[in-house]
Batch of 2 targets.
Target 1
Amino acid sequence: MKRITQIVAFCLLTVTHLAAQKNYVSEVWVSDLGNGKYKNPVLYADYSDPDACRVGEDFYMTSSSFNCLPGLQILYSKDLVNWTIVGAAVPDALPPVEAPERPEHGNRVWAPSIRHHNGEFYIFWGDPDQGAFMVKAKDPKGPWTEPALVKAGKGIIDTCPLWDEDGKVYMVHAYAGSRAGLKSVIAICELNKEATKAITPSRIVFDGHEAHETCEGPKFYKKNGYYYIFHPAGGVATGWQVVLRSKSVYGPYEWKTVLAQGSSPVNGPHQGAWVDTPTGEDWFLHFQDVGAYGRIMHLQPMKWVNDWPVIGIDKDGDGCGEPVLTYKKPNVGKTYPICTPQESDEFDGYTLSPQWQWHANINEKWAYYAGNKGYVRLYSYPVVKDYRNLWDVANLLLQKTPSDNFTATMKLTFSPIQKYKGERTGLIVMGRDYAGLILENTDKGLVLSQVECIKAEKGAPEETNTSVSLSQNTVYLKVRFESHLKDGKNRNMRENLNVMCNFSYSLDGKKFKTLGKPFKAREGQWIGAKVGTFCTRPAIVTNDGGWADVDWFRITKK
């Protein structure tokens, strides 16, 4: 009997592994049009400050993850249009590991860069409160090294290395005005050969105060004897892309604006990555800030003219392009199947699926991934003693919103402990404002409420709009995201995109009843609104609690 059990377990693991290898294709957003063209954004999800590199025929991308863990998610593509999540460079915790029970909204991992050198992958990023960090790995799926502090300093952000032909290693970075007391400048320092420590002070090589205020996010390249620094300027939602060049690493640098919104509807096209294809084409990945959905990723054609890059379509021939909405796919020599980053989850694995992130350094006591039983069990975890609302909760299990219009539905079974009240679980849309369907164990039994919290980041109390009593502990929870433009003339999507969420529930998974009132989604601290679940209990001392079993979580059109 034991032998049979082992065979069954092996088969389950094999099936799970094979399922993970299949290409996931979203119901709600696919960039590949299937006719040799693609539409922007290539990822309608909050992959903020993207950076990418090519190794042979493979492309790898990472983006800002701030306080969310696993951090620095790694995405993989063969053609720059179809992407899948293959891992994370910081799987569990960011230093210093002190108290995982409270999120650090908007802190930790800012604007990373990913590079491949001498058989190893490197990711650099700036922590605005600590300095520049680096991790490396031979395989982008991991394992990655522990974060190394390359250069300590308040306000050092947006770091990117360059290995020069003479063996020297340099790092370019910007400064966060909120910590450094200075912004709108670009600086360079030299690193040791291992790229683990700065060995010179940073030297400011470009001042953008006059022409390119809020210059930041630099990426370092070398081509045809020129050192190039690609960087955004003008602000997140309204800025443009600048390129600096010089024959000397420390300058002086001349500059040129190479991408701007122009007549397109794509506001703030900037901050990303130049990559080339095996066939010799050049492309540029960048983000667009669309407010509640965060910073979504676009792909632009790029060409070199007189040793300057031109990004997008240059209609008037002035050397500055504007974004495309549809275009022919990159020529990578082959055609690859359509795939998109993972969204829906049947929870049939034994580890966390790669689309999910917790809202802080991970505590191993938060969840049990019971793949053989087909669910994830979230244990109720005590909130902090000075709890105000869910903004203070670390064990929020969330994922990025994947499109402008979609539905998220989950099946949940709640098993609270009976000796005390106040344990909660449910479906939430999280941001500076949040709302959700919350199931709570009360003196009156199980109660399902539609709640909202406006100005959660300011400590505002959570409000209950509507409640219903439940006689069963299994429930299906649903939220529908729908968006529209408030003003057809406003070309700033961050201000103009109105995202409304409507909540409903079901006791049988078939007939759903609307509960509460519509909620206007709002972004978090430097991230888009996220959707997911949680399980908490009051801040009391006890040796155990209840749990919530999430059977599945599905992203669909309707």
Target 2
Amino acid sequence: MSEVNPTRLCIVGTGFSGTAALFHLVNALTADRRPVPSVEILTIESRQVNGPGYPYAPYELLPGHLCNNQARQMSLAGDDFYDWLGEHRQRLAAEFPALIRETHPVVPLDAWEPDPEGFYPRALFGVYLEERFRDTVMKARRHGIRIQSYNGYCAIDGYRQSERFSLVIERVDDGSREVITGIDKLLLSTGHWVPLDTESEMTAGNFLDSPYPDSKLRASVAAWSEAVRDKTLTCFVKGMGPSGIDAIMSLAESGTFHFSDSGHITGYTPSPEEAQIQIVAGSRCGFFPAVRGASVEYQFQYLTEETFGELERVLGQKLGLNDILSMIDQELRAATSGQIGWQDIVEPKFENAFEKLRYDVTCPHENNLVHTILLKARRMKFYRHLNAFEKEIYDRELDTHFIRIAVPIPLLNAEKLLALFESGKLESVKMGYQISGNPVAHGGQYQVTFTDGDAESTRLVDAVIRASGQDFRLSLHPSRLVSALAEREELLANREGHYSTGGIMLDSDESYGVMCRDPETGRVVPSPWIASYGVLTRYWQNERNFSAAFVEAAMWLSEEWAAYCARQSSPLVAESAWQN
């Protein structure tokens, strides 16, 4: 490399989304028949390890914290995760036996073969991400691409400087700061976050704002148990989605699940050494997601197009939220011979979560059809076509139902939950859809309000673990970098009319370039430097699910940035060289 100043690319956050960006970017830069431009890639990560990030950190999770997608759907590209499992089968069985046994409880480790339909621990997927990050760095360096990783640093500020961008980073351990200058392109891949809690009463010592890391949860439970002494500790898990299930598994971790010869859960025995803990799970609807069953082939009759915009063009009319719900209802009824409609999604015809789980573990065909239809509706990206009032209604009242259907749970988790119910360890409540805070602090405990039949009831619990969906308002983002960029108007909260949808503005529906305010003209324009994808961006939570969405975004970014690098390296010939 003869250039003095290589094109400088920076990725903030090296969890799954940042790792996917690096993986595809390096592949794009080193693709066959393309000259490798002069490039330096910088990565910023507060943890000491790159790859796993927050949700897949191997040493912050339990084996029972499972991915909610099969191995064939969890990957940086194609079947790469499943292929990696097979390639390293013997080593993984030797180094991580507990992670393998979680998915294959009755298979001898020396006979284990990866299952593309298997649901593996998120910690194991984290190992894969860590190794793939390291492999990608080695590949980049073999091709002359400079890589510099700033681990143990947080990005806290950023600003324009001499037609490039500068980033202020701070060491986690001692607070010392450095400034990285001359950045050409910057990706914010900060992932999920725990929003700043605006209710001071919910920040007491017996309130935990997240079930992760598991070590923090267990330390908190030990302290809570000591506080109640010889009484039963009642822990309320707010949220019954995947994070809520992880919290429940952590609270029951020291007990023993029993398996049949075929590997199914048959019961649960609490540990005699553990503190007496009663788990109460609650959510607005009061139900866990359904079990992820087999994929089904279904010929759509109403949601016939791949995108909502295409459907409107085919029908020759503008569709509103009520029209969409009506079409979903018609599709559900057509698929299930009239057995299930939209109202059955809103209010499942079961007495409680236990009864619904008993139905779901049979993996009924109707559940698979419902999942297929609602996932298709969500992926058609109808949300972006709603007006501001309809978006507000959807976010407040409807998205929870789509999420509950679109993100099913592994059968193993459902069987464990049933065993916990049957052992008396677990209860559930339906909190309803009231706007007010629930639970609320009450005399050193918390009061949970829930529906009991047609009546409203309350009960007191000793501690609360929040595992509910996050708040997407930009003002509640805990990152100092995001706050600083928002204050400088390098990021703009997405507003449509009277309504703030959450997340930041993007320059188009199919782009991940962010919008900013030009300090000279005051106009809102595309940022020359910053891109973002994941939950920080507008509509992400309403339109996208699963690892495939991050991979799709990473591939878009890699092509954009690789083309930019080529132009910077040789402006006169880059376009023809890139296209050839």
